[in-house]
Design goal:
single chain, about 270 residues, alpha/beta, 8-stranded mixed beta sheet, about 35% helix
């Protein structure tokens, strides 16, 4: 059933509606879309803002963290008065204030093996804005099994990466990194630092790829990794090949259910 855009919606999304490839039909498609965002920190903040502004109808946000003073240098969704409040709840308020057309569903919980498949199954597309390997492997595996596209990003100091796992994988995140690097070799933002604008750039690119996918536009990052060097202002595209021996999306898969990803990645909690 086709529903008409209201007069207010036509005014709000006017710059979309006049674009070739979108129009009123594409905007209605966005309004019917459901996107799950894992993490609403440095990457997730710009993702959430741009998806809500674009009129993505339902945005689920999974994050069990609270706003900290140190977040405000890069997590542009939050304000000083939000310190101590759950990020997912603050995000819901901020996004629905930005665009009342959007329904935001906060999940104040970690994305874990216990809830991952249930959450992913309810959405059309998943965006990974997490900052750790266990979540990235889990999100990729579950999206392969549920045949949902995944757009993931990563940041480190002045650098960032973005890629996409198409429905069913081929390639998936494990094809790029079959074995996670040692935790000692991969410090987090607290230890290594990050220039605040870098997650904004990568997160905006993730939002761009998400909107293109939802609109059915041709280009995507499936099978390609984009690496960004902020100091040199350079982008490098790398082809990612499917691994026939991948235990999740390969010719003879051996993993069919979530595993203990902290143990797999060598992390003790």
């Amino acid at each position: 059933m086709v529903f008409p855009l209201s007069e207010l919606q036509i005014r709000r999304y006017a710059r979309h509606i006049v674009l070739p490839g979108i129009g009123g039909r594409g905007q209605r498609r966005l309004l019917r879309s459901r996107v799950l965002l894992i993490g609403v920190g440095g990457l997730g903040s710009p993702i959430a803002l741009y998806l809500a502004a674009a009129g993505v109808g339902t945005i689920g946000i999974v994050d069990d963290d609270v706003v900290d003073l140190s977040n405000l240098q890069r997590q542009v969704l939050f304000r000083t008065e939000d310190i101590g409040r759950p990020k997912a709840e603050v995000a819901r308020e901020r996004l629905q204030a930005l665009n009342p057309d959007v329904t935001v569903i906060p999940y104040v919980e970690r994305f874990t093996a216990a809830n991952a498949r249930r959450l992913v199954a309810e959405y059309d597309l998943v965006l990974d804005g997490s900052d750790n390997f266990p979540t990235k492997y889990l999100a990729s595996d579950v999206c392969v099994w549920e045949r949902k596209p995944l757009i993931w990003g990563a940041i480190f100091q002045y650098e960032g990466q973005i890629s996409m796992v198409p429905p069913g994988g081929r390639p998936c995140y494990r094809c790029l990194l079959p074995t996670p690097p040692s935790p000692e070799l991969v410090p987090d933002c607290q230890q290594a630092g990050v220039l605040g604008v870098v997650p904004g750039i990568i997160g905006a690119m993730q939002a761009l790829e998400a909107l293109k996918w939802l609109l059915g536009l041709e280009t995507s990052l499936a099978g390609r990794l984009l690496a960004f060097d902020g100091l040199r202002a350079e982008w490098l595209a790398v082809q990612v090949e499917r691994r026939p021996d991948c235990p999740v999306c390969g010719d003879h898969p051996t993993i069919f259910e979530p595993i203990d990803y902290e143990v797999f990645c060598g992390i003790s909690r």
